[in-house]
Design goal:
The complex is a heterodimer of chains A (437) and B (330).
Chain A (H helix, E strand, L loop, with lengths): L4 H12 L4 H27 L14 H26 L5 H25 L8 H4 L6 H33 L7 H10 L7 H34 L11 H27 L8 H31 L3 H12 L2 H20 L6 H28 L19 H24 L5 H5 L10
Chain B lengths: L1 H14 L6 H8 L10 H5 L4 E5 L5 E5 L25 E6 L8 H9 L10 E5 L8 E5 L8 H5 L5 E3 L5 E3 L9 H5 L6 E2 L27 E2 L5 H5 L5 H5 L5 E5 L4 E3 L4 E3 H8 L14 E4 L10 H4 L3 H4 L6 H6 L8
Parallel strand pairs in B: 3-13
Antiparallel strand pairs in B: 1-2, 3-10, 4-5, 6-7, 8-9, 10-11, 11-12
Classes of the chains: A mainly alpha (437), B alpha+beta (330).
Chain lengths: 437, 330
Amino acid sequence: MEKSANDLLKEFAPQLENPTKKWWLIFGIMVILFIFGIYGLIYQIRYGHIVTGMRDHVVWGVYIVNFIFFMGLSYAGAIISGALHLMKTDWRKPIMRMGELITVISLLIGPCFIIFCVGRFDRLHYLIIYPRIQSPITWDVIAIMTDIVGCLLFLYLSFIEDFAKLRDYKELNVPNWKKKMYTFLALNYKGTPEQEKRLKQSKNVMAAMVIAIAIIVYSVLAWIFGVTLQPGWHSTIFGPYFVIAAVYSGTGLLIILMWFYRKFFHLEEYITKKHFVNIGILLFILGAFYGYFTFSDYLTKWYGSVRMDKLLIDMLFKNYFWEFVVANYIGVIVPMVILGFKRFRTINAITIGAFITLISLWFNRFLIVVPTLETPFLPIQDNRMAWIKYAPTWVEISLFTAGVSVFVILMMLAAKFIPIVSISEMTEKQDKENIII
Amino acid sequence: MKNDESKNTRRRFLKLGIGAGAASLAGFAGAKMGASENNTEEKSGIKETIKVLTPDGKLVEVEKTSILPAKDVFIDRIKAQEGIAGRKFVMVIDLAKCKNARKCIDACQEGHKLPTDHEWMKLYLLKDSDATAPYWFPKPCYHCDNPLCVSVCPVGATYKRSDGIVLVDTERCIGCKFCMTGCPYSARVFHWKKPDVVVDENTPYSPETNIPPKEGTVGKCVFCPDKLRNNELPRCATACPMGVIYFGDMLEDSVTNGTETVRFSELLRDRGGYRYKEELGTEPSVYYLPPTQRQFPWERGYESLPDSIKSRYENIDVIKETFPKDNNPA
């Protein structure tokens, strides 16, 4: 069972070497989607935000939904990979890198949706040069920048050992520039006891820090909504609710990635049913929490007689009935049933459950953002009828798919650059005395 | 020729010793607040004289034509942040008089060069509960004393001034729209596209007028500080044919709708004045007088509208009930 680093390198080398036809095909499709998104963006810049579905009441649409969604995936990746790092159990090893990659890649995509959403992105630097600390957006700018630095650092620290191994592996059939990159990025890491100790310590510190940062940063994002007076947003539960929902969606994404990498890179030996079940149990617990928070939030709004809350709940059940069912019933019940009964716990079923989680959590964010904006304190009147109801246009959808395609592209490129199963982690001797931190 | 004439009158004017600056003139201009322009005397050729008070307290009589309108002092982005000294502006809207004539909206659109579909003033048809009667409800920006829009702005593009006015600096605004979600009164609107109005390119930008409008930024009612500096009423108050909108200074305790000037505190006391959604704690500067003893049935405000405007109200229950045929063209 135990394999040496060289065995693993030999086994994983084809992943990093010349791409297959299938790889190029998927890559090509993703690039086309990306170009379509760029076209949409240019169209929006040319004709203004009038080409989106957003109007004076629903001022935030799919762009902000995607922003919350991708940021959530990122923070979830940080919390999961940080926790996995600190757990010191053997089974976590093959999937850690995926968690780290989710963190950084989603974190690069999420803020782009803010750029699409602001009316004057040519003035985006004003956020830095004229900041007002009273504004939750400024908190968010600080938080996201801290997070990007922290997560990139954590990702890089976990890469160093593998870069060193790839540098030293002479039979690797990759272009010269790639080898040079490995040499440069390995930072002269030789694996001396001193280097090893330092690296380990810094990784432990960063793992703990990214967990803390992720929780704080996602709460800040939730407070952007929570501090306003709008019905549905003005809620004290939003900070923890957002964090739980984020980790739930990110766990789903991790399972989906495990399934894809396992299939395309033939990692059946490394990513086994045990991984799916273990992460699936985590999904089950988070699903229960998510369901509980959602229920708690809506019950208190529904039970009382506050007029605005009532209008919002009516809107959710009338105009957004199916979205509500998908987000808050199917998204909780189906994954929990799949994981709750042993006989449903197959790899494919768990992946389907995870996929449902991901979809439903997107709708959950949509239901947080849009219906609230459609139920302002003063009823929407004296307005063009066509301007009242929000529906995303092709421009918004093109940028949405572009965001997803960039995620896939970066995941594919990352897997071409570094083994998706961390070699250094796999070969690391388990240090019994080294318990958490 | 016109230039020469104005120079002459100006010189004469200065000789009279009342040219001590825009302020004294503005004091005079205040006296004719809300009076409609009357051009008939000019045509008849009779030189009409008018009495004015000089800064040193003398009453002098001058030709009406020699009085120049108070010169507009350009207020740049820095000056606009200060506010007019010693003032605290308030607006009182008398719901009993409003019949949805929409002149306030037209004057606002015209005066601030606002594009179509970008309206600062809105007219709602509210009905508080099943048994109560509907009423028309003009809604400008409330210029709150505890404005959430100002709190949430990440770049300081919107700010509260000493005179109570909340302004937007569209040269600073990044268009994040957070203020629009922060405002509980939906007072803010966005420039979704290139503004379809013609504005002289050389017009210098002032946050007090928000001319020229800029794509991708947020706009809202500004209480017309450019008019207030000349001691004139905001455009909506002047334009209203019913005298619905009273405007004035809380520190002077007086408000006027152009035809009558009343004590602000007495008006609120006698007519049961209130602020919309007081419970939100935003402390608006706009007060409402309840729609009691109404001068018009509310239906008239709908019937007289052109179809294009009528369609803006078709989603309201009380309109659907009262005017079923308008909504079923078949």
